[in-house]
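Please check these two lines:
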Amino acid sequence: MYQMKYPNLFSPLRLGNVVLRNRIISAPQGFLHLDAESLPTQAAAAFYEEKARGGAAVVTIGEGYIDSVHGIDIPKGIHLDTDDCIGGISLLADAINKHGAIASMELQHAGMYASESYVNGNAIYAPVERMGEGTKAGARLHGVLIPEIPEEVILDTIDKFAEAALRCKQAGFGMVLVHGGHGWLLNQMMSPVINTRTDQWGGSLENRMRMPIAVCDKIKEVCGKDFLIDFRFSAADVCNPGGYTLEDGIGMAEMIDGHVDLIHCSVGNHEVEESFVVVHPSMFLEDACNLKYAAEVKKHVKTPVAAVGAFSDPQLMEDTLAAGTIDVIAMARGLIADPDFPLKARMGRDEDINRCLRCYQCFSGLLDTKQFSCAVNPVIGRELENIFDTTPYKKKKVLVAGGGIGGMEAALEAAERGHTVVLAEKTGRLGGALLCEAGVSFKKNLDRYLSLQAKRVMEHPGIEVHLNTPADKAFAEEIKPDAIIAALGARPVIPAFIPGYEKEHVVGAEEVYYDLEKAGKKAVILGGGLVGCELGIHLAIHGREVTVLEMASAPNFAGNMLHGEAVTAQIAIHGIRLLTNTKAVEIRDKGVVAAGPEGELFVEADTVIYAVGQKPLREEVDELRFCAPEFYSIGDCNIPANIAKAVKEGYYAARDIGRI
């Protein structure tokens, strides 16, 4: 008999008359690649299908709006308020159901944050009359007087939730997630801070919970008692001085208990900027950091309870379920990083899981391009493309020059496609420049990923690895490859333009990462990019007094502003001195002379650390350029960027080889 490693994680759960095949739910993710009518495309279906194929018990579609006139906060989202949606969303339901998972749709209404509805000239409402505010959807509503939602609109909205759920059921969905959290309409009505109405729809807990309970009861009435409701709410309004507490959240849960099939505990408010990095935990927070809220709610209700937020360790998930702390675990980014997470864990192959780095690449991709991307999963958002990539290719001998993050991905994909791969790495280890961050507490999943990729490469029968071997022209001429993928990376820029740069107490960021003892008690970091700021946090955690000098008006977070929010919060938490618009003029024995907005200043330092950029190894690349008929250069040796770019370029360079 097969010995199940995680029996509690993969035990079935009965909700009503429906049985979930395990305790892992794919939490809502809004795939924004919709058609002109805001309906899902085949690409969207392929995106969600990967989660079902990977073993999740439930796959939840994000951003399903029950009122496209009064309740929209973003231009793109699935509109569920007419029957026209049924054909489109049935595409999603079928893609999920055929793999044994339950298809679920998030039902959402933005309420007083329905900025897109307002911009389109439609009325929007708040629980009580108030001025518009917020940092995201609400940012467009500053100075707008939002009227109180009339009772007839409340009743109509309740009906719209039920009608949307019925359309989902007709399309093949077995569940809906009623969104009562994160500051959206139902959460606004539930909040003791926001909903101060004096009629039956506000004020007391009973009155504040009247609308969400009515929504859920109406869905059961219209769709039948066996149609499942996953009720997501914010158990506490974290990082919001004017928000409500966990005690308030417990009261809400007690009221909704018995009206739904699953109580799904999140935290926070979408429009409170500081809460984003807790609602969607940053790499600086511990695994399962929001579990404590769901665990407390569980003590007070009979309905099964789900937790969400920074779950990536199957053993932690197993132990949590075994202890009865909660009943279900919802994952979003973890299943973007590796949609096969459940299947790998069930097979006892958890060491082969690509764990989420919590770097916010996925969110940044959505903000910038309206498409999903992932630092460690180059396929995400391109599932349909890969399904139909049947281009014939010829098997060739491939030299991968460099064993960093892009080179390893390229070697693995080339070998998987049947090419004979030779990987040459000039050092004694695979992993490249990022190996220096192995000891950083908040980069543990990156370290795990590098180790996993290195193991995959070393053990792959189709890859011949040469360590301590420069991938130069002589080596290429010796092995005579048909194709070369240059993944040689970049090296730190040495600030020779600053007098005193050659002094003994001046070191590069990479050196300090490798050996923390090279940093004295007081450290000045030259450069306020991600390398400098994250190193500053690492040093501060280990008791150093840190000052970061940045010439620009703000730190440079390489376009990843959400991770930047997390970094900025950590800078404040650890008391790091960040001086912007400040340029190092001279490095002296006891510190740095700098020029700032108020003139010249002297910053004391035992150690001066430079993090002023990377220089691509283009000359080394050019040496290899004509050593094979096919040639590709990827990652930092082109333009220094990030992990996602290196991984994606390595993956697709390997897939391009041998087409002709």
User: Anything to note?
Assistant: Residues 426 and 470 are 4 Å apart (CA to CA).
